[in-house]
Design goal:
By secondary structure, this protein is an alpha+beta fold. The protein has one domain: Outer membrane efflux proteins (OEP), CATH 1.20.1600. It is built from 10 helices and 4 strands, in the order αααββααααββααα. A 4-stranded antiparallel beta sheet has the order 1-2-3-4, with no helix packed on it. Strand 3 and strand 4 form a beta hairpin. Helix 4 runs antiparallel to helix 7 and helix 7 packs antiparallel against helix 8.
Length: 392
């Protein structure tokens, strides 16, 4: 007998978890199907391959000479040479590290674009939930307005009502139906936008209630974590790392390169052959490259400082805006619970204590407050989604 409550609790917990993860589930699907992300992933692979194109050995050199003698009595001379150039192990090691740093740079670039696309998708999901909530509300209002218009028509036909009351009820019904149609149109447009992000495939999100949010209280404490998670900041930091490695590489490129090979000279009756060793001293080819690489590092460090300053300022502004929207949403939610006049107004109308015009004025005020409450919750959710985009 004790197992039944446990099973019920497990089912309720699973259902609650599923409800909390619906937007996350949609984002997971979009990440798999989004065509832009697929292109970006291929671009990242291409960049990683390109980062290693300079790590292979230079092509071997093969030479052959066929020389006629003069006078003819000295015969013909044939020369054969094969050589292969090598970098010092130090240079090869630094090239490998530069390629690794550039691979990470490509990954952070992809993650930044991924974050932007998923944030756009999450904003669409929040809009869909908002429209679902409004459709639920407006469907109930339309049904109620239709019942009122029908009742006023019966009163008018029986002589108990008047044309002013009937027209007021009819105008209220028309306005409610028009708003319902508008919201349906907006919802369809948002669903189309979400399908575009999902690679053209339609996606369903039927929630009409927003997920609860745990808004952080202290900005500076929260920012310390947000800065570490930001792929955009990680990208500019990685540019500095790449630049420093390229400085080291260009310094190492000042070392001589060497080559090993075989050379043979063949003359009638004689043969000379053996091993050749050569050195290439970079007197001019590497000129100013170290200076240029150091300048690139300084530029990357300046970009990082600017990016951090802009990131901090934008997030601080967004944090305070999100906090303010939370206060507004909480206030609306609290007032709607304590000041719900929908039932008292209906009772007063049915009892003949107020006219239809007074009822519509009172219920419109309540409806308007409820609409503002749903809008405030949507705005709060969208602001927080932007604030926490690095967690996507």
């Amino acid at each position: 007998m004790k197992r039944l409550p446990i099973i019920i609790m497990a089912i309720m917990t699973a259902a609650a978890l599923h409800a909390q993860n619906k937007i996350a589930d949609v984002l997971n699907v979009i990440e798999q199907n989004n065509t832009t992300l697929k292109v970006l992933a291929e671009d990242m692979k291409t960049q990683k391959t390109g980062n290693r194109t300079d790590m292979t050995l230079p092509d071997p050199e093969i030479g052959f000479g066929y020389l006629w003698g003069s006078p003819k009595t000295i015969g013909i001379k044939k020369d054969v040479s094969v050589s292969q150039s090598f970098d010092f192990a130090t240079i090869s090691g630094i090239k490998s590290k530069v390629a690794d740093k550039k691979d990470l740079l490509a990954e952070w670039q992809y993650k930044t674009e991924r974050m932007n696309i998923l944030l756009e998708a999450k904003q669409c999901c929040i809009d869909l939930i908002y429209y679902n909530a409004m459709l639920k509300e407006l469907t109930a209002r339309t049904e109620h307005a239709r019942e009122m218009a029908t009742a006023q028509k019966r009163r008018l036909d029986s002589g108990d009502g008047n044309i002013i009351e009937y027209n007021s009820a009819l105008l209220n019904l028309t306005a409610t139906e028009a708003e319902l149609t508008r919201i349906e149109t907006e919802r369809d447009a948002t669903a189309t936008q979400l399908a575009r992000l999902n690679g053209g495939e339609g996606i369903t999100l039927s929630d009409n209630e927003f997920e609860p949010i745990a808004m952080p209280k202290d900005f500076d404490e929260w920012y310390a974590t947000a800065e570490k998670k930001s792929p955009a900041l990680a990208y500019v930091r990685q540019q500095i790392e790449v630049g420093k490695k390229e400085v080291a590489l260009n310094k190492a490129m000042g070392l001589p390169a060497f080559s090993l090979g075989y050379q043979g000279e063949f003359v009638k009756g004689e043969r000379h052959q053996g091993i050749t060793v050569g050195f290439s001293i970079p007197l001019w080819a590497n000129k100013n490259k170290v200076k240029q690489a150091k300048a690139a590092v300084r530029a990357a460090e300046a970009r990082e400082a600017d990016a951090k300053q802009q990131f901090y300022g934008n997030l601080r502004t967004l944090f305070h805006r999100t906090t303010g929207l939370k206060v507004t949403a909480d206030k609306y939610r609290s007032v709607l619970i304590s000041a719900d006049n929908s039932v008292p107004l209906k009772k007063a109308l049915d009892a003949g204590q107020i006219s239809i015009q007074e009822y519509l004025t009172g219920i419109s005020l309540y409806y308007d407050s409820k609409d503002r409450a749903i809008e405030a919750e949507r705005d709060y959710q969208k602001a927080y989604a932007e604030l926490s985009a690095a967690e996507l």
